[in-house]
Write a structure and sequence with these properties.
By secondary structure, the chain is an alpha+beta fold. Helices cover about 15% and strands about 45% of the residues. It has one domain: Immunoglobulin-like, CATH 2.60.40. The chain is built from one helix and nine strands. Strands 3-2-6-7-9-8-1-5-4 form a nine-stranded mixed sheet, with no helix packed on it. The chain starts with 12 loop residues before the first helix and ends with a strand. This is Putative secreted protein.
Length: about 140
């Protein structure tokens, strides 16, 4: 015997599947959006000296995430270092290109640091031992 008109309207589970997938996608999107890093203004202080005794005449901060620009010369740094400051919106690591000697427009020797993420760096740039290249390297000092 069959029952008719009991008022039970059951949908198969397959009918709810698109709604469940949509809810899962929206939840995943909200979690990802909340945890992604946001580029915020970072204040960097970089004290630079050149091994030859030439003054650092310019500093370019290069960020892989954008926000690269010239650092501004600030107050005198410790000992023989020149202090540069930089404030820009970016995330992750950055490297520093330094001009040793020459002028701000025409660097005598360009030197490049390794990547770093610290808000304060003390760099010593080797502008003497170039081994046949026109660029030197900068190393972080403690």
């Amino acid at each position: 015997m069959t029952q008719h008109g009991t008022g039970s309207t059951r949908r198969p589970a397959v009918a709810w599947l698109p709604y469940l997938l949509l809810a899962a996608l929206l939840s995943t999107w909200v979690v990802l959006a909340a945890t992604l890093p946001v580029a915020g203004n970072r204040q960097l202080t970089i004290d630079v000296s050149c091994t030859s005794g030439n003054p650092p005449v310019g500093v370019w901060v290069e960020s892989a995430s954008g926000g690269s620009w010239w650092a501004e010369e600030g107050r005198p740094g410790p000992a023989a270092a020149t202090r540069f400051t930089f404030q820009q919106a970016f995330t992750g690591e950055y490297r520093v290109d330094v001009g040793c000697g020459g002028t701000a427009e025409h660097w005598g020797v360009a030197a490049t640091s390794a990547g770093g993420s610290a808000p304060y760096r003390r760099l010593v740039c080797d502008d003497e031992n170039l081994a046949g290249t026109a660029t030197g390297g900068c190393r972080d000092r403690p």
